[in-house]
Amino acid sequence: MTETHHTLDLLAEAGIQYVANWVNDEQPYPMRVKTGSLLSLPYSVEINDFAAFLEQGQTGEEFAQTIRDQFDILYEDGAKTGRVMSICLHPFLIGHPHRSKHFAKALAHIASHADVWLATGSEIADWYNANYLEG
After folding, report:
1. Alpha helix locations (H) across 38-80?
2. Residue 48's beta-bridge partner residues?
3. Strand order in 18-19's β-sheet?
4. Contact (CB, 8 A) for 70 and 85
5. Where are the domains of the chain?
6. pLDDT, tens digit (0-9, with 9 covering 90-100), for 9-45
7. Which stretches of the chain score pLDDT less than 50?
8. Which biological process annotations from GO are given for this protein (predicted)?
9. Looking at residue 135, what is its pLDDT?
10. What is the dihedral of CA 67, 70, 72, 73, to 10 degrees?
11. Do 47 and 87 meet the contact criterion of CB atoms below 8 Å apart?
12. What is the pairing mode between strands 38-40 and 29-31?
């Protein structure tokens, strides 16, 4: 998406609840828009299979290790204040068996920890809005 100075206002006016393309934080935050509300959800270029496989030449195992390393640090940080870890996946890349088996192990590592919520962007936005913006 190419963004202009009007993009966020137009998205909010159209009823879009959140964007997830700003790579500047691991916590959601509200964006300033003229009308309505718009939330920024965390996005990480490094935890994107397109960048990992096609731009950096990582193997499935290396990408899975990157995911685990990212998670382990964010999990520690999240003990103080919650964190969001987005993982951007493309089925035509991660879906190959030589990659998906390693991703499954990384996901199992994440899911094995207490107090981890595997959620969609909409679920995160709904929770944030209910707990921080509506109250």
Report:
1. 49, 60-78
2. 88
3. 18-19, 38-40, 29-31
4. yes
5. 1-43, 44-116
6. 999 999 999 999 888 889 999 999 998 889 999 998 8
7. none
8. carbohydrate metabolic process
9. 52
10. 180
11. yes
12. antiparallel
